[in-house]
Structures are given as C-alpha cells and as structure tokens.
Amino acid sequence: MGRHKGYKHSEATKRKIAMRTKEALSGGVAVAELPERSTAPQTDPSPSPPPPGLALPAAAVVPKDALDALTLGPAKDIIALMLWKNRHNEPELNVQLTERDLNGFRACCEYLHVTPEVRIVRPQGMPGHGGIPATRTRSAIPPQEPTPPKPYVTVCLVERGTENAIRPVENNEQDWQAAEEAKNFNRARDQALQLAGELQRAAATGDYSSSVLNDAAQCLAALAR
Questions:
Q1: Are 62 and 72 in contact, with CB atoms under 8 Å apart?
Q2: Whole-prediction pTM value?
Q3: How far, in Å, CA of 9 to CA of 168, rounded?
Q4: What is the per-residue DSSP string for 1-54?
Q5: Angle at 157 between CA 95 and CA 75, to 5 degrees
Q6: Mean pLDDT per 10-residue section of the chain, whose length is 225 residues
Q7: HEC profile for 40-96?
C-alpha cells in the first residue's frame, strides 16, 4: 500500500530508522536516543508539599539543643545574650555606639587591610573511630567514642572568609591611652591575689618589702581607674 504524495515520517519513526541504520553499519549495539522533552506544561505526579509550619524542608538544619538554636537563630538573640553576660560591668545592659567609634573601627580595618566578619560558632566535638591494630612501627590505637559539641558558643570578629582574629590598632592618642589602661587593669587583676598573699605574709612577720608595697600600690591604682 503506497504512501500519498507529501507523506512525512514522524519523529519517532525517523529515530528508529536512524538507530537501525547505525546498527547495520557498525555491526554493534546502537545507542538508544532519549525522546525529546516536551515543552508543554506537565502535571507533577508527586504529592503536594504540606502547608508551611507543619513540616520542615529536607535541607533545613534542625538544632539539637538550645546552643545550636542560638547559633542558627537571629543575631539579635546573640546581642541580647552578650549584653546580659556583661551585666556585672554594665548593669544597665547597654552599650553606646558613637560616630567616633564607627570611624575608629573603619580606620583600624583599613589600616590592617581586612574586611571584618562576625563569626558565630558552636565548636563541635571530635569524631569517633574504631580501633587500629598495631604495626611494626606503631603501637595499636584503641577505639575512641565521639565527643559531644562544646558547651558554649563563640562570637568573634575575624577577617572575612577566615578564622583569623582581628587585632585592634588604635589610630589616635586618646584611644591608645585607653587601651594601655585596659592592659594595666587586666595585669593588675591577675596579680592582685599574689600581692595580697605577700602583704599578708609581710603583716604576719613584720618584714615589709618596699618592692612589694610599691607593686601593691600600682596594682590598686590600676584597678581604681
């Protein structure tokens, strides 16, 4: 039965003919060609997702405890907790930020050629491993259970994309002097207990050393500033 004039093969028929021709010429197995994808809209056979709030996306990170939730939560929660942690130094739970602070911060970052980034991290524990038998050059390594995450969250200012902490550099005499006073205060706080013990021993024996008295006076002056 002949085909009428102007008859054309369908795309599927053309592909079958091409496959058979390749197989006949090569003597091997023809590579099947995938059918063309239709551009017409198709109905998704998969079930529709649940309404928002009823289930979490598969890629969502589920916090395991309150510290994980703090790390993954909004930055305002971190700031609030930092203000609370500093409550003994600032009972009013506030920090004043001025334009002078902003300019000094920018000048420090420009001087160091760094782009700052706040890094909020919950340090993870060590992964466990099975026992490793001994060799001729090494003794056996016993199995190790995995350790849990650390019981704290760290908030630090680092160079963007790294773990390198930013070291403050003061660009004026007033800020430099304030930094020196803070260093002296921390040094005096660390030495206070030792100096107190030396003064108590001197009071018990009556043997007062001028160097101990001078160190104690400097320590008190630094703590009073």
A1: no
A2: 0.55
A3: 77
A4: -PPPTT----HHHHHHHHHHHHHHHHSSPPPPPPPPPP-S-----SPPPPPTTS
A5: 60
A6: 55 63 43 33 46 50 86 92 93 93 91 92 88 88 89 92 88 82 83 85 83 83 78
A7: CCCCCCCCCCCCCCCCCCCCCCCCCCHHHHHHHCCHHHHHHHHHHHCCCCCCCCCCC
